[in-house]
Write a structure and sequence with these properties.
190 residues; alpha+beta; 4 strands
Length: 190
């Protein structure tokens, strides 16, 4: 394992992956720190090679997203604004991959390999969790369906029992049998 990969734990790198516009992205400043370059150098390289970064590879946060991002960090230094004075570039998985070809820096390539492996692991975990959620949903729906069916069966059984009791009572009355007294005996009847 190279020294560049030992510098950051997977958990640290993963904590730099955010969801913006429904996509998993990494911010320019986080990538610059991981690659050990200045953010403005990273942005310059991207701007020089902008054709390599279509909208599904990289996008710039709009003002609303930037304000929302800042509001998530209540304790941040207001002068620094969490290092976000300008809307950052947000790189998707494909954009991060493209960065390694633009930066041509051995450290950037090594860190990109780590990031790509993390994205793959996250996707695999998501697929596994989706499969589990689908199975649980099926089980839940099945148990709800079975539960409703069992309730209907019990309702019919109770109705059948009531009808049976009514039928037996009518048969006794027709045959002239005296009905059994139900309840407590208070004493002898005269």
């Amino acid at each position: 394992m190279s020294k560049a990969l030992k510098a950051y734990s997977d958990e640290f790198v993963m904590s730099r992956i955010h969801v913006i516009r429904g996509q998993k992205v990494m911010l320019d400043r986080d990538l610059a720190a991981l690659y050990d370059v200045e953010t403005k150098v990273l942005k310059q390289q991207v701007k020089r090679n902008i054709d390599s970064f279509p909208e599904d590879f990289m996008f710039e946060m709009n003002k609303e997203e930037l304000e929302d991002w800042r509001s998530q960090f209540v304790t941040s230094n207001q002068g620094d604004k969490m290092g976000l004075r300008h809307p950052p570039f947000c790189f998707t998985e494909h954009g991060v991959l493209m960065l390694s070809s633009v930066l041509k820096n051995p450290r950037a390539r090594a860190v990109n390999i780590q990031i790509m492996r993390l994205f793959v692991r996250m996707r695999e975990m998501l697929i596994t969790h989706k499969d589990l959620l689908l199975e649980l949903e099926k089980l839940n729906n099945t148990s709800k369906t079975h539960g409703r069916k069992i309730e209907v069966i019990f309702r019919y059984l109770k109705q059948l029992e009531q009808r049976q009791q009514q039928s037996e009572l009518l048969d006794e009355i027709r045959r002239g049998k005296p009905r059994q007294v139900v309840g407590f005996k208070a004493g002898k009847r005269k």
